[in-house]
Amino acid sequence: MAKTELIIFDLDGTLVDSESVYQMGWATVLKDFGHNVEVADFELMRGKGRHHNNQYIKSYLGTDALVQEARNLREEYYFNALNNNEVQLMPGALELLEAAFEQGITLAVATSSYRDRGKATLDQFDLSKYFTYQVFGDEVENAKPHPEIYNKVLELAGVEADKAVAVEDSLSGLKSALDAQLTVYFVPEAEVSFDKDEKRIKRCNDLHEVKNALFK
């Protein structure tokens, strides 16, 4: 692999511990609609795009109108949690960003979150200053696991895939980055299993390990 010129980060579950808040938000909202759903059941929504996740919620609520109403309530739940400091950075996130920044490596974020929520999350932790490029879920036609979002970042940065790496936490994001021909530092927040025997997957326990692997 060539010298790393670009690191592309996922946001939710990778840099920011937000997935559990999303899942609790969905459980709370669906309970208000009369559906008792275990928080763990929302794990299959991790890293997926809005269309996929709306279809899952629709399996409970039945109509697009109710799905949109529920999503609006879930967004309100998330923003309240964000404003009340109930969303936290993942351990090692700031240290990794600062180390990469100090090395002069270009940084980007590629997130399934739409711009309004993604930007609010970045701003909450003063992270925008680290990222030269930010691509959000409403700025691509095809959500992860499609590679479009990673390909778009590579195109914006003018960097070849063999000079870039991704940092991801979900299987959906992993496939997206691999299909964009990126090496991926994979930090699964939840227990996952996959059958890929792929040299481009660098599995790590946390972002401290990612930092040590990149800057040893």
Automatic annotation (TrEMBL):
Report the InterPro entries cross-referenced here: HAD-like_hydrolase_sf, HAD-like_sf, HAD-SF_hydro_IA, HAD_2, HAD_sf, PGP-like_dom2
Q: Which Gene3D superfamilies match?
A: HAD superfamily/HAD-like, Putative phosphatase, domain 2
Pfam families per UniProt: HAD_2
Which superkingdom is the protein from?
Bacteria
Entries under PANTHER family matching the protein: PHOSPHOGLYCOLATE PHOSPHATASE
- Please identify the protein, giving its name as recorded: HAD family phosphatase
Give the species this sequence originates from.
Ruoffia tabacinasalis
